[in-house]
Amino acid sequence: MGSFEMRSPLTIRQPLLLLLCSLCFFIFLDASIYRTNLYQQYILKYFWSPGAVFQRAYYEGKRPLSDKKDVLLIGNSLIDVAFSSKLFDSDFPQAPFHTRKIAISGTNEKVWFYFLKHVDPRHQRYQAIVIPSDGYIVDSSPEDKANFYQSALDALTLLRLKDWPGFVTSFPDPAIRRRVQMLALFPSHAYGPDLQDFLMNPKQRLRDLADLRKNHDAMFYNSNDVLPSSLDGLKIDYATHSVITMPEGIEYFRRFGIQQSLSVHSPEEYKLFTQENASFKQEWLTKIIDLYKDSATQLIFIQMPRWPVMWPDKAPLPDAPDIRNLLPKQKNVTFFDDKTFEYLEQPRYFHDAIHLDTKGQQLFMQTFGKKLISLLNPSIMPPK
């Protein structure tokens, strides 16, 4: 009889090992494509939120320091609409510093922290950093910023490997946290649609990014949104939470924003929203302050004009905390007076529910510029 060769039976460890190796290879391939400057700088769509954050961080990080000291204004669309570096330089040529605006719509304090950590690792790049607030007294808006998944997309290109564990755990909701974990392991989870869009029209994308490389200063720092039409004439019935009069010519998007701002919640919900907002602001603004605790950089908080009329879904509760009492006291931390821009909280100075119109912007710029120069360089008298 011929010899009979015994084969070892297939064990469960073999397919598991193959699966593990395949997973590791896929993670490596995924990272090799999407976590490189090659993709992020030359392919990623810059007017999509992760691309916008990356491009601003990239160009700000590589920009040589100017002949004057720099003051950075970081924030979201509130400061983007209200402030223009180009107009500031024109209105205040005597200012002994340059202003740089890094404002990305929809971002919040969590993203700002990682942005500053990324572009200013030595904490000495700026004379001052201006941080806008939508109100020192914590409001009761139902935003749940702690579980805002968009923040993970916004911060995606800013996070280093060592940042991810703490970033993932910063999302309290288990379902959201799992999505962020997937994003940490597989950036294609976010970038897949962007790559598909690129492959549909690569020439146009490459042209857009080439234009950006030539004109990024004008497109980012010197941008100036013109919002000419105001809400002048808007009147609210607070008893019924409805609009009494709406200005003519208000398009759907602005009408929708106004109706959303009139939403009403239960007292228990308002209390919960206030607690969540206070906890979020305290955590991430404290992180920013701690980042600069041993720095000469001044951190300047300003309360932005909050509303054209007081919105029910943003009105603070009577016992709502004040962030000025929640944050660490440091000699390099300053707060503008909360009444500085209250005079702008009128319908005639607002374009929509939260953004100033062009006239409001001009007045904001004048007040802000004088206050900023007076604070940082008191020996210089700004024009009246």
Please describe what this structure looks like.
The protein has a 5-stranded parallel beta sheet. It is 47% helix and 9% strand. It is globular, with a radius of gyration of 24 Å. Helix 6 (109-119) runs parallel beside helix 7 and helix 6 runs parallel beside helix 13. The protein starts with 12 loop residues before the first helix and ends in an 8-residue tail after the last helix. The protein has one domain. By secondary structure, it is of the alpha/beta class. Strand 6, helix 14 and strand 7 (333-335) form a beta-alpha-beta unit.
Oligomer: single chain
Largest sheet: 5 strands, parallel
Straight-line distance between termini:
111 Å
Structural class: alpha/beta
Q: How are helices and strands ordered from N to C?
A: HHHEHHEHEHHHHHEEHHEHEH
Annotation, overall tally of beta strands: 7
What's the alpha carbon Rg, rounded to whole Å? 24 Å
Q: How many H/I helices?
A: 15
Question: Strand order, biggest sheet?
Answer: 2-1-3-6-7
Give a brief outline of the structure:
This protein has 384 residues and is α/β, with parallel strands linked by helices. 47% of the residues lie in helices and 9% in strands. A five-stranded parallel sheet has the order 2-1-3-6-7. Strands 4-5 form a two-stranded antiparallel ribbon.
